[in-house]
Structures are given as C-alpha cells and as structure tokens.
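My current task is to audit a protein record that another person submitted. Please read both lines and tell me whether the tokens look consistent with the sequence. Do not assume that whoever made the record got everything right. I have pasted the whole thing underneath without changing anything:

===
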Amino acid sequence: MKKGDLLELEITGYAFEGKGIAKIIKEVNSLDEEPKKYVVFVEGAYPGDKIIAQVGKIKKSYAEARVKDLISKSTFRTEPRCKYFGVCGGCKAQDLFYDQQAKYKEEQVKDIFERIGGFRDFEILPIIPSENFFFYRNKMEFSFAVKRWLTENEISSMQEIADKDFALGLHIPGLYDKVLNIDECFLQSELSNSILNFTRNFFKSRSISIYSTQNHTGYLRNLIIRNSYHTNDLMVNLVTSEENERLFTQFKDELLNEFPQITTVINNINLKKAQVATGDYEIVLHGPGFNYDIIGGKKFRISANSFFQTNTHQAERLYQAAANFAEFNGDEIVYDLDSGAGTIPIFISEFVKEIYGFESVVPAIEDAKVNIELNNTKNFQPILADLNKSFLPEIEERKIQQPDIIIADPPRSGMNPKTVNDILALKPGRVVYISCNPSTQARDVKLLCEGGYKLIKLQPVDMFPHTYHIENVALLKL
C-alpha cells in the first residue's frame, strides 16, 4: 500500500473524531503466520458505505484515507442542511441522521474507556441526546483573516477575485491563516447570522485592516456573539489588536441602530501575538458588559471571557447527571475543580453542606462572586488557584475541611498530573469527573484507579450535535 492508492472498501464501524472504519486482510510473509486485519480510518465515511478511498497517511497498524467516490451510500446518510458542509469543519456529521450520531458517540465513549483505560467492569448509561440539533449554541466565535478560502469554481475561473483579501467566518480545518467567509450558520440563532454579515460589511466597506499572524499588524481579530436562551441578553464582542475609539463608536452606533435587540457591546483588546479570542483588557461601550442566563432555576452572569456551557439546554442535563452520580445526602464537603463562574457549585448548593470552587481565571472568579449574590448562595466559596500546580497549599493555608466528594471539569487536555496527585492525597470517597474529551478523561481515570479508585459508571451527554465532540460524566469511588 502506498500513499495515493485507491482502495475499494466497505465501512463497518465508526471511530472517535468522526472517521469510518474499514478492515482489510494484511498480507503475511509466511504460511505459518496468521492473516492480520489492517484498519483503515476513512474521513467522511459511515457504516454501510461502500466506497473508493484514497490512501493518505500509512502506519504499521493502520492507515488514514478519504472518500474519493461513493459506490453505494449507507442508509444512515441524510442530506446536509448547510451549503458549506464539507468545507467548513464545524459540522462534520451533518449528513448522518442524528439518532445515529448519538448512538455512535455512546459506543465511542465505551470503546475509549476499554481501549485507552483498559477498563472492563463498569456501567455505561444510555447517552442523553440533545433536544435541539440546530440553533443550539449560545456562543459562536468567528475569525477575521486576510486570506479568504476560495472555492474550486473561483480558482478554476481564472478571473481576478476582488474580495479575496478580506474574510470573516470560520477557520478551514488545519489552516490557521485561511477563513471561510460564511453568511449563515445553523448552530446559533438566525439573528447572529445577521450580526455576522453586518459586521463583515461594515469593516470591509471601510477597508479596515485585519491582524496578520505573519507580520503582527492590523486591527480586526475576532467577533464573538453570545445570546442567552432564558433571557433576552445578546452580547457582541469585537476583539481587536488595539484601541480605535472613533471607529468602534461608529461601529457600535450603526450596529445598535440595525439590531436594537443587542444588550451589550464590548471591545476586547488582544495585545498578544497568539491567535486567541480573548483580550488583555476590555472596554464596554454599551450595556452592562455581561449576559445573564438560567440553568436549573439558578441565574448566572456571564462575562465576555468567562466559560459557560455553550448548549444551555443540555448543560442542565449534564449537571443533573453529575449530581445524580454524586449521591448527595446533604452533609458533604465538596470541592469543584475548574469551577468557572460557579455554575456547578451553585446548581448543587441546595444538596450539600459546603462547596469550595477552585478556578484560575480571575474574571470567572468575579462572576462566581456575583452569581453567589444573585442566587443567595451561602455555602459556596470560590478560590483563585492555579490547577497547573498543586492546590493543596491553598487548602492548608485557608484551613479548608477535607472533601467528601470532588467534582472536576477540566479543559480538553485533561487534568494536570499534579491535580491527579492532589486528589489521591485528599482521598475523597467519590470523584465525579466531567470531560469534553473522553480520551484524556480515560487516561486520568486510569491514573486515579491505579491510586485506589474504582470506575463505577459513565454517562455520555451530547452537547454538540453534528460534531464528533461528546461530553461524558464518570463516577469513581474510593
């Protein structure tokens, strides 16, 4: 097998990160050797497909390929709704019926824990699917770029393309410097599409410069739109490389004239060279500078740079699953690691004795303090702590009681090894581990189990329909 070869394959499985699985018999060198099955992971293929695949990367035990031609389609396929499907990397599974998406995600969580963690004796509960699989996001992040992604028709036309140097949309997968100029997306509200198009036209018509990661000059960097689901709050946050009060005020005035529904307009100033959509500081030009939303009857303030689950409806189900796993009886001391704006601690506050939330982002801590007041929560204390270091000194310094339960919700990269060691040193009776990356979660759970814990059960929750991302809750007992 060589790179570029064409293979006729039948897809029999579906792997994490949205790749179809085909197995072929690998040739052997001796009659005494047993034939071995060789796995080919195929981008854009689903179980039941018969395809011609073009080989890309080749490894000893597997190869990667992409669909060159469909001989016959899986019965699970459906027509994608979005005209950008196949180019934009946001909704890679939009051409797969949603019930099948959810089914495969559940299977993938089980497979990851068995294969990466080596676990066998655990329970996996049926996945909790999303009620809405379009317009479910409360936040979208768009990027400006000086290189617009050109379509095949544009490239083959051999014509001069006037607007190829200005784009506002979503990054092409694997290309940090090219952006697809989208005019609609079915993940957030229809109103957010109108705001996106207005913003692009406003700055493009004035020939405003876009920040370049090559020479680190230019003004425009990102546009973030947040809309609350249980309130009417709507935030527009423009990230730029510097202040320009006159231009931004003009943008704000025309934006509000077009969209009076907008409740907050913010300018985040990002002085870093890195491509991140957060600022070193922010200027609020309209409204309070934050949104409010409600989860489980609790009200939360969300600042421009604070973490808040992007699928509000599913967040309540996710937190309820975590609370069910914790089996609270009302007397527990609980630690919540990576507690953000305090959503989980406040959600569970009525069911426990005391909660301590450890968080490294200062604006999130400030939001948590406000959310405590909003909900009249008396038993939650947010603590600023760097979870890339041991947080035990904070506990000792503040003379905090030892935890009965630890809830952890780390970023995609998983827990820092020092955090794992801290949990093992504290020895809470139960650990409830929430993760948006089952692979790093399985790795960390394995380390905890090697230190004296047992994996009891898992609860997958689909927060992100049409993508391969999956949220998962794990219960461990000492």
